[in-house]
Amino acid sequence: MNESMFDPQIIKQDFPILQKQVHDKALVYLDSAATSQKPRQVIQAITNYYENHNANVHRGVHQLGDESTHIFHQSRQIIAKFFSASPEELIIVRNTTEAINQVAYTWGERHLKAGDVILTSELEHHSNIVPWQALIKRKNARLMYIPVSENGDLDEKFIDTFDFKASSVKLLTLSQVSNTLGTVLSLTKVLQKIKQLSPQTKFLIDGAQAAPHLPVNFDELPIDFYVVSAHKMLGPMGIGGLLVKKEILTQLAPFLLGGGMISEVSLQDTTFADDLEERFTAGTPDVAGLAGWAAACSYLSELGMENVLHHDRELVAYALEKLAQVPEVTVIGPKTAHNRVGSVAFLYQGVHAHDVGQILDSEGVAIRSGHHCTMPLHSKFNWQASIRMSFNVYNTNADIDSLISALAKVKKVFGI
């Protein structure tokens, strides 16, 4: 689809929930960073599976079993292709959080030793902090943080002066896009430095907020792990992916053990499946969820991720322009659209974020208020809480106008 054919007004019609009314007002959904809404194509893919093909995968000899197995493998191929990965590099998990925990247990337990360093940043989602805190305690290792600058990006001075080699950094794990600030992190510089000074360091990208907005080419990225949740990118909840470069995947022992991922089992021992797609899939997979996720990937591919990114940045630019006209608002994170996607977060002077959120809800506008699972970031800058509007392919400038209008009610209610 070329850019001129990308029409969010038409796209919005694919999303049944966006026809809903809230408090007798048309729903304006600006909370897609928490979870995106689902197009009819995704809902139908899930319904079709359960109505026409539901059966357990593999080893069945009846037709429904064959159909379900075909959908399972076909969906994996579509999803992997969306990320420019091979199907065997895709481990199916419940969400980004589970994927990060899998890396901690399957790779971290084997390769991290006392004194080693895991390096992340101050703006990470809790899911990219808490598992590493637990791991370093088990391994007597260290967890260090790249500071975040006032513009919402990684502190370049720290990257320039930090001795990656001497510090024995075994893993660098960073978000591609900040879930709070919307920053597209400047990863190229730190990646290049690590590859030069510490080539044994592994690299993990949290792509939860990037995958809905940016083209992702796992094959070309100089990284080892990429984690993602389907529900952020128009797919269903409860399913996600851990992408692992094949040369690393072949060295990992399975994390979850049981049926489906074995070759042979005796009372004394077990051998695991040679097929990497099976070896890391224990038990009955969520085939309906996979079908829904594959439909979401196909939907986004048809729209074209370059078009999605262009539309997203136009929304960000428009939101920044409109918020700049509200004296009580202070935008946090990048002040221009060129290095942020997906969301714009702000503070409202003299009013708690939750109060702002409730008043906006009364006007039919759904946003997110709180710390957005980034308490260390909020503590660093002394933000008690923040207000985040976030976008997806179905949002329009009119949605942002509705939020700006609703902010006038905040001013009126609190007499500001």
Characterization of this structure:
The chain is globular, with a radius of gyration of 22 Å. The model has no long low-confidence stretch (mean pLDDT 94). Helix 7 (187-197) links the parallel strand 7 (169-175) and strand 8 (202-206). The protein has two domains: 3-30 and 304-414, Aspartate Aminotransferase, domain 1, CATH 3.90.1150; 44-301, Aspartate Aminotransferase, domain 2, CATH 3.40.640. It has 416 residues and is an alpha/beta fold. It contains 14 helices and 17 strands. The strands form five sheets. Strands 4-10-9-8-7-5-6 form a seven-stranded mixed sheet. A four-stranded antiparallel sheet has the order 13-14-17-16, covered by helices on one side. The chain starts with 7 loop residues before the first helix and ends with a helix. The longest helix has 20 residues, at 63-82. 38% of the residues lie in helices and 17% in strands.
